[in-house]
Design a protein that fits this description.
9-stranded mixed β-sheet; alpha/beta; Dihydrodipicolinate Reductase, domain 2
């Protein structure tokens, strides 16, 4: 396996660091628009693991907005698999450039949505991932696999859904991804500050777009942002967090392959974060279309959302000032294999202190990064194989979860926590 990693930011950097502990690949080309950033990632690997391991990595410059550049770089290094670790706005070019190169593909976030022009808060327009699923037959005919949505959410949540459907439940009422944490970021003086732990560009996209919900009786539909608030009791000391509906890929992915009456995604944002996002929207700072602004060099065109991202701390840099845990999980309700009511929360918790010690990456990006590397190893071993545009829920979950948690694998503990069927939001 020869891998082209597109993007050496927070998640891309963490992917390379995780992969450096494994042996299933021949070469990983770490590429970024900022060549120095790709070099820094490899320098870290060299310092931590030695020259022999670092020799399996190569730094390169790439323009992710240029499909031809992606194709050229992939062909130049005989790449078999392209891993997309850049912002979703670059997905069309990386996705198409990979196909033209004749390589397999993996991403963690899917093609962007477009709201319904006439009724955005009731009817979906173009859903997350629609553009990719639309060309699935082309990838299948080419005999190539595009493994999409293979991060933590989507990704691990999809694996949990497949595991629940195959091994725990006979009937599924609801698949509800629940994400929350107790993370705190402080400044140099120890004061708590506003600093998102993941890309604000992506966060705005997820949280301010109309959330999509799936119900078997009516299909996909949308609601207002931050709808259906509920208090969910997160495990391992995180505690009760208010969660709200946000737009997310699982809702558009899981109903295609797993029978469930309802599919939702709820994010534990907190009141402060919701207030900030609403303010950004009110001021128009969530928009992606460039506006003309003054500068010392004369008028320039700037995307308001890119400006917001530029003035906030880089999520990849906040690790030393971050404390707490983040939990990614899936609450499944329905009937167990004996036909009795069951509610199970399948989850993985990442502690920032631990991920910083392991790979010097803050916990949110580290939690995301483990999963594509596990998937790549399963693909390299021929355990996960196929052709077309497929999500992780299309593959056997047990090899993934076994490799994820084993002492000879990635040593990432996951838990299936039973909840009271009558009140699954709280742990008994």
């Amino acid at each position: 396996m020869r891998i082209l990693l597109v993007g050496a930011g927070g998640v891309g950097d963490a992917i390379a660091k995780v992969a450096a502990t494994r042996n299933f690949y021949e070469l990983i080309v770490v590429s970024d628009y900022d060549f120095a950033r790709a070099e820094r990632t490899i320098a870290w690997i060299r310092n931590r693991h030695g020259e022999e391991r670092a020799s399996k990595f190569l730094a390169a410059k790439i323009d992710a907005s240029n499909a031809a550049n992606v194709t050229e770089l992939a062909r130049a290094h005989n790449i078999t698999h392209v891993v997309n670790a850049v912002e979703p706005k670059f997905l069309p070019t990386v996705f198409s450039g990979t196909f033209t190169a004749g390589a397999n593909y993996l991403d963690m976030a899917m093609s962007l949505s477009e709201a319904n022009e006439t009724d955005p808060f009731h009817r979906p327009g173009i859903k997350l991932g629609d553009a990719q699923f639309a060309v699935g037959e082309q990838w299948e005919r080419a005999g190539k696999l595009a493994l999409v949505g293979m991060g933590v959410e989507p990704g691990l949540s999809n694996v949990f859904a497949r595991y629940a459907a195959d091994y725990l439940f006979s009937e599924i009422d609801e698949l509800s991804t629940k994400d929350g944490g107790n993370l705190v970021v402080t400044d140099d003086a120890g004061n708590e500050i506003f600093a998102p732990s993941f890309s604000i560009w992506t966060t705005i996209e997820e949280c301010l777009n109309p959330p999509v919900i799936y119900e078997r009786s009516r299909g996909w539909f949308t609601t207002e942002p931050f709808s259906e608030p509920e208090i969910f009791e997160f495990p391992e000391g995180i505690g009760a967090v208010e969660c709200v509906n946000v737009e997310h890929e699982e809702v558009t992915m899981l109903p295609r392959n797993i029978a469930a009456n309802r599919v939702t995604f709820k994010y534990g944002l907190g009141s402060e974060f919701i207030s900030v996002l609403k303010t950004l929207h009110t001021l128009g700072l969530d928009r992606t279309k460039p506006v003309r602004v003054r500068s010392a060099q004369g008028p320039v065109d700037v995307s308001p959302r890119d400006l917001v991202a530029a003035v906030l701390p880089d999520p990849a840099s906040i690790g030393p000032r971050l404390s707490g845990k983040t939990c990614a999980g899936l609450l499944v309700t329905g009937k167990d294999k004996d036909g009795k009511d069951r509610a199970t929360y399948l989850y993985h918790v990442a502690d920032n202190a631990e991920t910083m010690a392991e790979i010097e990456a803050q916990c949110v990006v580290a939690q995301t990064a483990f999963n594509p590397v596990i998937a790549l190893e399963l693909m390299a071993e021929g355990i996960w194989r196929g052709a077309g545009v497929l999500g992780p829920e299309c593959f056997d979950s047990k090899p993934f979860l076994d490799l994820m948690s084993s002492s000879t694998g990635y040593k990432q503990r996951w838990v299936a926590q039973e909840r009271l069927p009558a009140s699954p939001l709280r742990h008994p």
